[in-house]
Amino acid sequence: MVESRLVGPVRIVGVGLLGTSVGLGLRNRGIETILADASPTNLSIAIDYGAGRAARDGDQPQLIVVCVPPDVTAEIVARELDAYPNAIVTDVASVKLAPLAELRERGADVSRYIGSHPMAGRERGGPLSGRADLFIGRPWVVAAHGGISYQQANAIDDLILDLGAVLIEMSPEDHDRGVALVSHVPQVISTILGRQLANASNSALNLAGQGVRDMTRLAASDADLWVQILGANAEPVRDILIAYRDDLDRFIDALADPTAPGARRKVAEEMIGGNAGVARLPGKHGQDRQFSSMIVMIDDTPGQLARLLHEIGEIGVNLEDLRLEHSPGAEIGLVEISVLPEVVARLTDELAARGWRIAG
């Protein structure tokens, strides 16, 4: 068992996806975890899955992690601060400025509170979706404020590192603006595109490939939760959506008459602008690197994907990313693999020599 930085015990309030995953990850480190939830059913499931034990009188947690919906985060944090005067308290809500402001309005002891936010999750929530490895390699923001000492915040840093996440320090204001751009607005855009599919013909939907599936994956998210998140971070989300609307209007104007002078240039400029933005996203290992993709056709039978991956390893090529798509109406899969550009030709030749069908 890997040695833990935390001493424990750690109290987790709210055992949905994030709370259960925190518990499972800490239990893998041998840390005692105490679970609490308003739902007895959720609590029982999380305990049965091994995320921790139920709370008992006399518990003295080192750290409390509040994993509840945004609209009650400040209320629960304030309650935990009062109930456990020797514990440090954090929360994992996806907005950071509003809970801190509400806690200050309540007169809570924010010298023992600092908000945090793991940039990890799944479309489905609840304790059954919890995973011990959910946070490994994922950014986890600590939203520092002036009312807490560095020494007191150490336990939160230790939590993040014990769970395998990457610690990032930001102010609450910078955090909320950042997640508006990279998380909250993409959710809105995915939702709007998903709505366009609701009344589409079956023949059109049968043409759907990986692109539209990628774009609408977020549209399956919990509507109740997102009403709270967007309401709590409304101003920065609205600002970005206004800019997005302006970009969309330029596309609409250019496409009104694509043969008009300059229309194609405007479309090209927008596309190139998108290329430039995507190129800034951190790639593998946090580097801005561009990879080349190739598509391999595999039979939709057991063991084929495992064999392909094994043979790529035998060839000596490092796989940077992978996506799997099933071809409608055919018993084949399309495996899109990303590798360094300099190995594409060699990998193509080697796989073809081994009998693999290269589709592109």
From TrEMBL:
Q: Please report the stretch or stretches of sequence annotated as the ACT domain.
A: 293-360
According to UniProt, the reaction catalysed is: prephenate + NAD(+) = 3-(4-hydroxyphenyl)pyruvate + CO2 + NADH
Annotated keywords: Amino-acid biosynthesis, Aromatic amino acid biosynthesis, NAD, Oxidoreductase, Tyrosine biosynthesis
Q: Which residues form the Prephenate/arogenate dehydrogenase domain?
A: 8-285
Q: What EC number(s) has UniProt assigned to this enzyme?
A: 1.3.1.12
Domain of life, source organism:
Bacteria
Its pathway is: Amino-acid biosynthesis; L-tyrosine biosynthesis; (4-hydroxyphenyl)pyruvate from prephenate (NAD(+) route): step 1/1
Name the top EC class: oxidoreductase
What InterPro entries does its record include?
A: 6-PGluconate_DH-like_C_sf, ACT-like_dom_sf, ACT_dom, NAD(P)-bd_dom_sf, PDH_C, PDH_N, Preph/Arog_dehydrog, Prephen_DH
| Classification via Pfam families | PDH_C, PDH_N
The record's annotation in PROSITE patterns points to: ACT, PDH_ADH
Which family is this sequence assigned to?
Answer: Belongs to the prephenate/arogenate dehydrogenase family.
The UniProt entry, under NCBIfam families, shows:
PRK06545.2-3, PRK06545.2-4
* UniProt name for this protein: Prephenate dehydrogenase
Q: Which organism is it from?
A: Leifsonia kafniensis
Q: What is the lineage of its organism?
A: Bacteria, Bacillati, Actinomycetota, Actinomycetes, Micrococcales
